[in-house]
Design brief:
With 236 residues, this protein is an alpha/beta fold. The protein has helices at residues 13-16, 26-40, 58-63, 68-92, 114-122, 140-150, 184-190, 197-205, 220-225, and strands at 6-11, 45-50, 97-101, 110-111, 126-130, 155-160, 165-166, 178-179, 181-183, 210-214, 232-235. It is globular.
Length: 236
């Protein structure tokens, strides 16, 4: 038995860079694919949204002189590259997977619609939804919240490099302490860096709980879907 029937897994682009710090780390992709296949074989329906920060981040591009809209569009394309890479890693180990894109770019991926995505999930496919929301000025955090709500996921699992939400950045502040449990309003009032504020508000208003956990610790993903108290749980 699993705690969740259908999940939206949000992965950062930076996490796919692994120890390289930039681009794609094949070992990291393979490790993530094995963890995802593990819960896939348990019968969990899996939607995935991946960021693109390991390849290009729109806001950073603006600082270097790019037009914001074009910069965000480049960031969307980076998420497509990451989605294709993870799709390939999953296919290589026998998982059925389909890539959807928020912007038309067949045959790279199928144009996203809620109904096709849910149909694919119910037919036993892992779905990866690339291209953010398809619009500039929206991050992949907001895109993940939107897609999680649309596909009627039970929870959004935000895989990061740390084991939950802290009072400060634990990578730079050794005195930071971790929260086991938070409400959406506590996240907003404390200005905690869980996700973008728009993603938190959207999740709150549509009652999509969020679990922030360390994806780089093998076995954590399985533990969460089995109901173990891993990471920080954000809810109403």
């Amino acid at each position: 038995m699993t705690k969740f029937k259908r999940i939206l897994l949000k992965l950062s682009g930076e996490s796919l860079a692994g120890k390289k710090g930039y681009g794609l780390d094949e070992n990291c992709l393979a490790t993530y694919a094995r963890q995802i296949r593990e819960i896939y074989e348990m019968g969990v329906q899996i939607g995935i949204v991946i960021g693109g920060g390991n390849l290009f981040r729109g806001l950073n591009g603006v600082l270097k002189g790019f037009d914001r809209v074009k910069g965000d569009q480049m960031g969307m394309l980076a998420t497509v590259i990451n989605s294709l890479a993870l799709s390939s890693a999953l296919s290589a180990i026998g998982a059925k997977v389909r890539v959807f894109t928020a912007i038309r770019m067949e045959p790279v991926g199928e144009f996203y619609s809620k109904w096709k995505a849910i149909e694919a999930l119910e037919e036993g496919e892992i779905i990866i939804i690339a291209g953010g929301t398809g619009n500039p000025f929206f991050t992949t955090d907001t895109g993940a919240s939107l897609r999680g709500i649309e596909i009627e996921a039970d929870v959004m699992l935000k895989g990061t490099r740390v084991d939950g939400v802290y009072t400060a950045d634990p990578e730079t502040n050794p005195t930071a302490t971790r929260f086991d449990d938070l409400t959406y309003d506590e996240v907003l009032s404390r200005n905690l860096k869980v996700m973008d504020l728009s993603a938190i508000v959207m999740s709150r208003d549509n009652k999509l709980p969020i679990c922030v956990f360390n994806m780089d610790e093998p076995g954590n993903l399985k533990k969460i879907v089995e109901g173990e108290p891993i990471g920080t749980y954000v809810h109403s």
